[in-house]
Amino acid sequence: MRVLGIESSCDETAIALVEGKGERVRPIWSIIRSQADLHSQYGGVVPEVAAREHVEILAALVREHLSRDGAGIDAVAVTYGPGLAPALRVGVETAKALAWGWKKPLIPVNHLAGHIYAAWFGEDEGPKWPFLALLVSGGHTELILVRGHGEFFKLGETRDDAVGECFDKVAKMVGLGYPGGPRVEARAESGNVEAWDWPRPMIKEDNYDFSFSGLKTAVLYSLKGREKEFDTPGFIEDVCASFQAAAVEVLVEKTVKCALAQGVKTVVLAGGVAANLVLRAELTRRCGEAGIEVKLPPFQYSLDNAGMIAAAGYFLAKQNAVTGEALLAVKVDPKADLHDHNNNQQDHKTDLPDYAKN
Ligand code: KG4
Ligand code: ZN
Q1: Ligand 1 atom 2: the closest Cα is on which residue?
Q2: At residue 19, does pLDDT exceed 70?
Q3: Which of 124-128, 141-145, 269-273 has the lowest mean pLDDT?
Q4: Tens digits of per-residue pLDDT, 197-222?
């Protein structure tokens, strides 16, 4: 089965084709057009600007890469949420037009489920059930127990900022601009992780939740009145290294604790922050010590891409595919939660998923 994926939830416009067979899925091609340079002048993503860009880029990608009759494509998967409403709408309406015109099923995919399914693009088979997913992106920091295809159970989440957002804010504080995560990581490489002793919020608490606003505020207060030192060689590097070490330590410790308590043997890393090499290495090391296997998404499928959406679409087609006129009613859900997905499954008495009825 070949599934076309479309992703437009934030500032990446992406399309991809994957082939699924049994429990395996492989990318055939995957194209990502980032709008990061455009948004960097505003210091972050402007939803309406992103949507306008998605319209232009997606139209060009469809013209360049897809045949008029959709030959060789069995279904169209698209991100319906969570994300920026105007941006999501561009992808969803494009996918609806293609699926309707080609008379193929439309598979609405939760963006977070997509990130988790990037783990299937590794060298070998996908992760074994049940597994624990550490989902870390610009808008989310969650620990999700995954019991089977589409069976997501949130065990913990951030009570305030997402960790990716925190990387972005720290980058801003020291003048590194947008997007912050990769820039903080690059500067941290030559910095001293012990230069600043910042808090590891909630690391010892007996739950699986996170909090990053305290760490962010600690960095902010530490830097107050010291702007002149930003030019001192090594200063920004030390800030980045110390902040990154604190954030990674909390993520890794809580994930290992949760995996051991739940008795799961596999941890999957997912979301844009999964591109961080220090997080990848630390999670692998600590899970290794605890006898837990780690599945990392290939680097190019860590950040937003359409391959992961197509892969999730392939595996969730049975549960989520919408056909015929019903597909025209599918709507975006900017605040979609993975829990809604479970609820949809339980209420699956009608043809339309809940999010299509709004
Ligand atoms: O998943 P993603 O591409 O978009 C969302 O769904 O949010 O994640 C983007 C987030 C941003 O906050 C970005 O700064 C962060 O992932 N990020 C990183 C790295 N690369 C991207 N954070 C830390 N280290 C990185 N190398
Ligand atoms: Zn994402």
Answers
A1: 272
A2: yes
A3: 124-128
A4: 999 999 999 999 999 999 999 999 99
Overall average pLDDT of the 292-305 stretch: 97
Do residue 143 and residue 287 come from a single domain? yes
| Distance separating alpha carbons of residues 234 and 229, to the nearest angstrom | 10
Question: Is residue 3 helix, strand or coil?
Answer: strand
Residues 181 and 202 in one domain: yes
Measure Cα distances from 41 to 44, 100, 183, 340 in Å. 8, 38, 16, 35
Residue 84: which CATH number?
A: 3.30.420.40
Q: Atom 18 (ligand 1): residue with closest C-alpha?
A: 181
In ligand 1, the atom with minimum distance to the C-alpha of 12 is 3
Going by the DSSP 8-state scheme, the letter that residue 137 receives in this structure is -
User: What's the 303 CA to ligand 2 centre distance in angstroms?
Assistant: 6
Tally of domains within the chain: 2
Tell which residue, 295, 248, 249, has the closest CA to residue 276. 248
- State pLDDT tens for residues 27-59: 999 999 999 899 988 888 899 999 999 999 999
Buried b (16+ CB within 10 A) or exposed e, 290-304: eebbbbbbeeebbbb
Q: Is the domain of 146 the same as that of 90?
A: no
Last residue of a domain, one of 296, 324, 348: 296
Ligand 1 neighbours (beta carbon < 6 A): 10, 137-139, 164-165, 167-168, 179-182, 185, 271-273, 275-276, 303-304
Residue 320 CA to ligand 1 centre (angstroms): 27
Which residues have CB atoms below 5 A from the ion given as ligand 2? Answer: 137, 304
pTM of the entire structure?
A: 0.94
Instruction: Take residue 357 and report the two structure tokens written for it.
Output: 């009825």
- If you measure from the C-alpha of residue 43 to the centroid of ligand 1, how many angstroms do you get, rounded to a whole number? 15
The model's confidence at residue 348, banded by pLDDT at 50, 70 and 90, is very low
- Of the ligands numbered here, which is closest to the C-alpha atom of 84? 1
Task: Give the span between the Cα atoms of 320 and 150, in whole angstroms.
Answer: 9
Provide, rounded to the nearest whole percent, the portion of the chain with pLDDT above 90. 90
From the list 309, 357, 358, the residue with the least C-alpha distance to 108 is 309
* Predicted confidence band of residue 4 (pLDDT cuts 50, 70, 90): very high
Residues 165 and 97 in one domain: no
Counting atoms of ligand 1 from 1, which one is nearest the CA of 9?
6
**Residue 195: domain span:** 129-296
Is 329 inside any structural domain? yes
